[in-house]
Target: 2OG-Fe(II) oxygenase
Amino acid sequence: MHAQDPVDFIEVIHNAVPADACAAIVSRLRASNRLQPGAVGSGVFPELKRSKDLRISGLDDWQDVEGVLQQAVFSGLLSYLRRYPQALIAPLMLQIQDSNGQPRRLTAEDFPQMDQAALSDLARTCLRPGAINLQWYEAGEGGYPYWHCELFPRDPQAETLHRHLLWTLYLNDGFEQGETEFLFQGRKIAPRTGSLLIAPTAFTHTHRGNRPQGGDKFIATSWILFQSAQKLFGG
Model:
């Protein structure tokens, strides 16, 4: 990142999943008999989101795909935390041991020297993966044109309020438009096969999914959530 570049906290990691693996996922999704109308937080509203979806988490015959995607997302998350360590240290007052074995606050300056294993452990301690949804948007009519964010007080367990980062893995390209468009950042992310998009979930990153033209669009989506308060803080 150059000094003059604006900081928008949107990260795109290319080739996160190989193109042949993406094509195999698309083929399996096309053949699935378990597709459901795409839903938003409050239900199925085709005027807001029109897609055919399959939640693969918890399905035995999709465990292999979920594993591939979660592994790619975790690798992308580590890259994201290297670039934006405040994603962890701003909401959580984390501590580490100094050279004398005494606790001290973790700072952003600690991250460049942190090895991959330590960063992985820290990420797993603080964060957890969400359930994965595969989505199929048909050319010219599918899309999620409603401006929305991913953080909202929907459920009694406050799961939706634990969402910290969103991610989208683009499973294909070869069509026009179909971008993920961020309102306040003025940025459109063009789908590229195997690319992983990571961004914050709050209203600051209000976004929409534009309709693909000239071809269908396939994506995998989910969130990276905070661990529960009980796991983070005990009690």
Summary: The two ends are 41 Å apart (CA to CA).
